[in-house]
Amino acid sequence: YKTGGTIHIVINNQVGFTTSRQDDARSTEYCTDIAKMVGAPILHVNGDNPDAVMFAAMLATDYRYEFGKDVVIDLVCYRRRGHNETDEPSSTQPLMYEVIRKHSTTRTLYAQKLVSEGIVRQDQANEMANTYRARLDKGEFVVHNLVREPDTSLFVDWNPYLDHDWRAVGKTGIDLKALQEVATKITTIPDGIKVQRQVDKIYDDRRKMGGGALPLNWGMAELLAYGTLIKEGYPIRFTGQDVRRGTFSHRHAVVFNQNDGEAYLPLANMYDDQPRFDIYDSVLSEEAVLAFEYGYATTTPKGLIIWEAQFGDFANGAQVVIDQFIASGEHKWGRLCGLIMMLPHGFEGQGPEHSSARLERFLQLCAEHNMQICNPTTPAQIFHLLRRQAIRPMRRPLVIMSPKWILRHKLATSSLEDLGNGHFQNVIEDNSVDGQSVRRLIFCSGKVYYHLLEERDSRSIKDIALIRLEQLYPFPDKELDEILSRYPGLESAVWCQEEPMNQGAWYSSQHHIRNAVKRHDSKLDLIYAGRDGSAAPASGYMSVHLDEQKKFIDEALTFDS
Q: Can you give the pTM of this predicted structure?
């Protein structure tokens, strides 16, 4: 995030004139005192003195170029009117605006100074002001040295990414031989790098996965997605808290030499002249980091740009970026963006601030196919989902409810063939039961599927099928209709979620699922099985968490015969 220094200009014009500056607005003498904590020089300059303002601007520019550091200009001025021309600021600041009314404008004061020094005549000063006003009224340029024509070499061609719907196809499978080549590349560590013992075991297991001796886990499938994209010419940028290792120690995209502490990135050293693979651990300033990555993604259509929250709840700190830009940027400004947000989401009894990525908020923001909200449950799914985001030409934000608990779950594995021959499935059907004998369908999304699966199998239930919605928006209605057609003896349908009833996907998605069920059989309705509504996302007690989970899993799997 280094810029080589930034010139910060504070237009200190008392715009908050309904607030008493010293008493209410801050605890310091100057509004720029906050810059003292980073050791940036602060230049206070009187806005009524244009010569001093120009000197301060030149000094700040020279400082920035010389030292490559931040510098701050506090331009002390005032606001002559209120929030607009009809607003009367004296109603809240009578004394300040009594002074302002008697005070000549900056232009008048500067003209008087130049006239007194014999530099211009008064009629010349008046003519300059009249000419300026006339140009403004005509919509003409008023700055002589303004760049009139843009630098076309800086343009980004977005034409290939325009006017694509969410069902635009993209071939995400890859030849098995090429896949294994990439697997070898991303697990090769040069001689001389001493790898920490547990990390060495992770890489050894990944080599076995690449050779087919072990099933693929989540971390390996994810890295294979990045590696294969790099092989195909797509640059990747990945930022967030602890993303190099992964908050849950599943990624380890970087290894650290135990002898000298130097970092080595296998993904950045696969081929000569390969696209860039950048991965940075960012500070816990979610709003700033996500805003930067949004801007980066809007100028890099071919790249895969990812921001990951340490826990999904941490996206709360970036909500303004999500609302103002990610969800509505295309609608407001026609600005496409293929940014990925990975938000770890899953109820594991770790309390309110470490459970929910606030799935319900994202679904509430969805309209006009503005975003994609996905909740993948297998390594193959994350592989194809990440590759789909880069390969197919549609560019819209992708929000991934990424897992924690199932990163290492014994059932959450995939094969090399799943990656090589498959594709991202918006809905995953249950192929472990006979559709002709199924009497109940349980629709679910995310890790709750594995709880349902384990409990159903432990009870030897054969007439309940589990249907996973891997993409919640845009809603995959066609896929759901096709799957429902294969269950002729259906008697009931349930939506099961681990989030409280007022959260998760229930309120935003139930009508989609219910409509699909009704199209299949008009007499059927959709039943809810999950936690009761709650003001907080999750309980802070493991025992309560487990009791709640046992109760709604039992409700989902029990029905009158």
A: 0.90
